[in-house]
Design goal:
There is one protein chain. By secondary structure, the chain is mainly β. The protein folds into 2 domains: about 1-220, Lipopolysaccharide (LPS) transport protein A like domain (lipopolysaccharide transport protein A fold, Sandwich), CATH 2.60.450.10; about 225-490, Porin, CATH 2.40.160.50. Helices cover about 5% and strands about 60% of the residues. The strands form 2 sheets. A 16-stranded antiparallel barrel has the order 15-16-17-19-20-21-22-23-24-25-26-27-28-29-30-31. Strands 1, 2, 3, 4, 5, 6, 7, 8, 9, 10, 11, 12, 13 and 14 form a 14-stranded antiparallel beta sheet that branches. It starts with a helix and ends with a strand.
Length: about 500
């Protein structure tokens, strides 16, 4: 079952593992907690590699409302809420039968295989755990961002073959033709090695645009080029914009990035970067423009080292992280240039789930940050405290409240600086429909005892695109308001 699911996952997704980084600076520290944060791409990869290196199959567990087992013949029957579990994979069905001695399992009424990020359905299946061979009929499912269907597949010890054709797409549309889809007469998938597709055709809105006889996809490499266009309106100061976000993988852990926006008011503000991502740390380089509260800052030759979260001692729910950043920064509004040196260390408590449920989660972080500016010659430090409590009120509703304490450490650059020393923030997020999500966030300045800002956001997902409206009602300064619109690829 492990090999079957792994092969299907690779065939469908053709994706590479992403590194889950939890930001420890900027606006990201104020985000609502993720209720299922412990399940992410990094953990999936580590678990899979661990199982692979063990060199022996994981135990198989069978459960059901009704179970029969013949110890002499080895025959077994499972009926009603049947689950067959091996490692991180779970097979769900209403009826299963097989033989423990021969290793055969039949799912004559079909079933669903589920693992983190992947769900595969089959109308009929047979698999032998001893020979690692099997057969699946009428396959459909989703793996990460990819949707796929195939009428038939055979499982071999070293590969899986979709021998009657198949369709793959990142467009989840059901009521109309997918925006983009790929078909092939056969797919041969060699897990963690390669995929060979024969008679490949690419369709856009159902129209055939490209063909090739054979397509070989290297599943061991991560060389990819990603180009994502975006358009929108970013307030009166920046105006309308068109943007291209691009990245080029130089290897499994290194990539070049380019953020290329043109604004009708702010004009061209490119940002070029280089990232190298290891398991324990990340090194990045930036040269270009970034914005904060409608002010633009040019980061010239800026290097950053991020040390990822690590537990202090196994078994103790405390972890530490930190970063160091250095570069020549320029405030576009004031013209001030300064060599900016910034470093910080953090202590995190693992998510605390209250009341015996993962629907209520408390996140605690404290730290210390130092900032030195060559323009002033001063080094300013501050203690940091972040406390966030989140509550899932239902499948489609969650709310959170956060208390944050952090002093300003640089008067030259607003970017990366808190808007206030003591902030109380509460939010509500409602998934109105499968396509529509509404979020409102209230920000309160504890030091001044007054409301700071209200933020309203509406996100509408099309099949492959998303349209996002954001309105900020400011209660500080001149009480100015801002309105933003974003239109971008959603499922890339």
């Amino acid at each position: 079952m492990k090999k079957m699911l792994l092969a299907a996952t690779l065939a469908a997704s053709m994706c590479v593992p992403a590194y889950a980084n939890y930001a420890t600076s900027g606006d990201a520290v104020y985000d609502a907690p993720e209720f299922d944060r412990e399940v992410n791409e990094v953990q999936v990869v580590e678990s899979s590699e661990k199982e692979k290196n063990m060199g022996k199959p994981l135990p198989i567990k069978f459960t059901g409302d009704k179970a029969e087992y013949d110890s002499v013949s080895g025959d077994f029957y499972l009926q009603g809420n049947v689950t067959i579990t091996q490692g991180r994979e779970t097979l769900k069905t209403d009826y299963a039968q097989g033989n423990m001695k021969t290793g055969d399992v039949w799912l004559e009424q079909g079933g669903t295989i589920v693992e983190p990020g992947t769900e595969m359905n089959g109308k009929w299946a047979h698999y032998n755990f001893n020979t690692k061979t099997g057969e699946i009929k009428e396959i459909s499912g989703k793996s990460l961002k990819d949707w796929y269907t195939a009428p038939h597949a055979t499982i071999h010890p070293d590969k899986m073959v979709m021998d009657e054709g198949g369709v793959m797409s990142r467009c989840p549309a059901k009521e109309h033709v997918p925006c983009l889809s790929i078909t092939a007469d056969t797919f041969e998938i060699y897990p963690q090695e390669k995929m060979v597709a024969k008679d490949v055709k690419v369709y856009i809105k159902g129209k055939h645009v490209y063909s090739r006889d054979t397509w070989v996809r290297d599943l061991t490499a991560t060389n990819k080029t990603r180009i994502v266009p975006r358009i929108g309106y970013d307030g009166s100061d920046n105006g309308w914009f068109i943007k291209v976000d691009a990245s080029w993988d130089l290897g499994e852990k290194t990539k070049v990035t380019a953020d290329l926006p043109y604004y009708t008011e702010a004009e061209f503000k490119p940002m070029l970067g280089l990232e190298h991502n290891e398991r324990n740390f990340k090194i990045s380089y930036k040269n270009g423009w970034e914005e904060d509260d409608d002010d633009w800052y040019e980061k010239q030759n800026t290097w950053r080292f991020d040390y990822k979260r690590h537990h202090i001692i196994d078994g103790i729910p405390l972890s530490y992280s930190g970063y160091f950043e250095y570069g020549l920064w320029k405030n576009d509004r004031t013209g001030v240039k300064s060599w900016h040196r910034e470093y910080a260390a953090y202590l995190h408590h693992d998510p605390i789930y209250l009341f015996g449920s993962k629907n209520t989660v408390l996140n605690l972080t404290t730290g210390k940050k130092w900032v030195n500016e060559s323009y002033t010659g001063d080094t300013v430090s501050t203690d940091m405290y972040y406390v966030t409590l989140a509550q899932k009120l239902g499948h489609n509703v969650d709310t959170w409240v956060g208390w944050y304490r952090e002093d300003v450490t640089s008067t030259l650059f607003d970017i990366g600086q808190p808007d206030m020393a003591k902030e109380l923030r509460n939010g509500l997020r409602i998934k109105v429909t499968d396509k529509d999500t509404f979020t409102v966030v209230n920000r309160y300045d504890i030091g001044k005892h007054e409301q700071y800002e209200m933020n309203y956001k509406w996100l509408h997902r099309f099949c492959c695109w998303a349209l996002e409206f954001e309105y900020e009602k400011e209660h500080y300064g001149d009480h100015g308001d801002s309105f933003k619109i974003y239109y971008y690829f959603y499922n890339l």
